[in-house]
């Protein structure tokens, strides 16, 4: 996959989609028949605005033309092929899409790629140094801090930031600061063990 | 045999999962795939009168809008494959809110999402019945469900004379427990990508049953089974919602119509009406007992919601009432009510609903009898299976009570409700028996190939749903073959591999574990046969039954220095050794039990409940891997916290529509909700297990823990709230 491989594509901006979606939902809630007033003639709408962005992802610079409505999550997964970052809810509730932006943890489904122009992004694929795993990755394996593994990339990115932030003073503090990442297999106690281990290793 | 089984080895796929390399269904890159987005019905019952797709079709990037008008006619797969009894996009009928009415296919996801908002639908609606309580008067007892490979279980059962025994009982408990709708919410949404080549299709599907998905697609599209390949190498949880549901079949059909690969990933919101839920349920329990706590009668009537489109599907069976305690007089009815809601599904630990009622009612009986709840359960313990009258082959439940109670410090408990306090905070301790049936599903086949390098590949078309299938099956294979763990590669999640059924009903160990043991045993015998027949082997001419295989070596059991390496035997053989075994019709049915304990802290002013300790002692047969089995306990306990305290799907009864279709309104536990958890295991092999003494276990820990938490809340507050979840509003209301 090249770094600049797609022309701008027609359609609506994400904001417009959210707006129409919201409007439709209001109508739906009345239980009535949906009218045709919403988005009438939208098929002939101008193409979705697109812009050029530069993203530094895992130490590699990518110059991309992206529609402004496209999230950072879709960009890393669909355009850069970095599918380690997962989509669990697409609305910032589950944390499976957590990445680091300039070292800060960010839910990439709630962030548009254009908002991160020029920033440094780290995804789960960027943690290991060659064959050598990051201490958080090692600790997750050792402590069995995952089962199905789907939320794991987000948990690990969150854990890396949690340790950097210094939010690992006690198990309760770890629990609190790791609560933005849901795990339905429910490995929470093992995740706390892994984060505590990795934090100690760093100290 | 080497001692690999039982060792807490880290998950063999751990590296792939922590680096992002593990490829889940939605991660599979298929060039040229169209992205699908569903448009769902906004009414619960009626008919589509107008469906306007033109604007959506003209929208940028849209390849097609599939509706009942342009989808091919499909056959509804058999009920044992697809519990939902109709396929959407086939006609104008609407059976529930959130039923697909269109599938938009576009070049990018954003284009499809936008175009989906342009589809206009009008309906001719019919009155709906959506309120569970309103339908109770029409509850009926369905005939037993017939499934191939499974023993039909009646929905109505009477033993002895329960009514007479109740009338004569010294002590009686008559209570009603209610539980709400729950949704599975695996963090991985269901996803399907279908790729056709000629008349054959490859389907990447987030599936907890690749062979069931394969058969469903073949039946629906009228294809030979061999023309459908389903792949699911990594599965992001399932919990019962990733058995076949219509979206998988529809994706395959749509891809054939548009002659392009199609990728459909369900949105979180869509997932609430597209692959089932745990039914809302009502249960009335009447217990009769002698003054010493001996149960003389149980009458248990459960009622659960079904839809109007299926007949004989009751996911929550009252197994604990039938099998867990000795009681001569018992009546049991499993009833259903039809509502205009989606079809329900199995959901993690289906027996938890009746188990919750029974284990809470027993706590109520313990108070009525002024007895310790453990003492009450010991009094009613049964060493024989009340279903069959046969002794349980291996049941260490009494030991579980003893070890659990000691580790928890149960003897320190003051039984009087509200007596344990920390300032204004009330502390409560509760316990219950944990039990769930396991297996009873179709058996599995397996193939083992030993290479000339001395490594083994073991193949089964099963899934790793997160329970640790890759790891424990690799351990079992290495153990039986006598190879180091690193020399075994366990391959799963592909219908090209030997048959296995669903990853469900705690059946993977009894079904797949047995197949791995059986097939690897046969391969080891063949391997030893090669060695003793080979004049170049130091083991030449020795009796085969006097040879041990361990850590890559074959040696004479009585003289270990006489040995040959497995690699050398195979290298001299010059070609791979291939052994396969067929699937038996059924894997054995098992019953795994334990004792579970919870501590809660309740703030009476806020009605807030915090679980501060959870502990369980279990009898799962032999422990295959202490690390992965502990994770099953943790998972089950945390599900119990959700079931008891936070989770419920809310319904807008006017439209039969689930309201909190997301993870901010539907509250699954988060890290901060969960305390330390202790898990103890008796670790005694079950002599009847074909899987090296291990039993199916994954669904046991959740059962019991829900009641232990609720019983602890009663112990803390003196309030017995019989309607789940135990939310703050109910606790505050009960206190005033």
From TrEMBL, chain A:
This is Xanthine dehydrogenase YagT iron-sulfur-binding subunit. PANTHER family: OXIDOREDUCTASE WITH IRON-SULFUR SUBUNIT, OXIDOREDUCTASE, IRON-SULPHUR BINDING SUBUNIT-RELATED-RELATED. Keywords: 2Fe-2S, Iron, Iron-sulfur, Metal-binding, Oxidoreductase. One of its GO terms (molecular function) is oxidoreductase activity, acting on the aldehyde or oxo group of donors. Pathway: Alkaloid degradation; nicotine degradation. Residues 51-127 form the 2Fe-2S ferredoxin-type domain. It comes from Streptomyces griseomycini. Gene3D superfamilies: 3.10.20.30, [2Fe-2S]-binding domain. InterPro entries: 2Fe-2S-bd, 2Fe-2S-bd_dom_sf, 2Fe-2S_ferredoxin-like_sf, 2Fe-2S_ferredoxin-type, 2Fe2S_fd_BS, Aldehyde_Oxdr_Iron-Sulfur, Beta-grasp_dom_sf, TAT_signal. Transmembrane segments: none annotated.
Automatic annotation (TrEMBL), chain B:
Coiled coil: none annotated. Its EC number is 1.17.1.4. This is Xanthine dehydrogenase YagR molybdenum-binding subunit. It is an enzyme of class 1 (oxidoreductase). SMART domains: Ald_Xan_dh_C. One of its GO terms (molecular function) is iron ion binding. The keyword Oxidoreductase applies. It comes from the Bacteria. Residues 19-127 form the Aldehyde oxidase/xanthine dehydrogenase a/b hammerhead domain. Keywords: Molybdenum, Oxidoreductase. It comes from Streptomyces griseomycini.
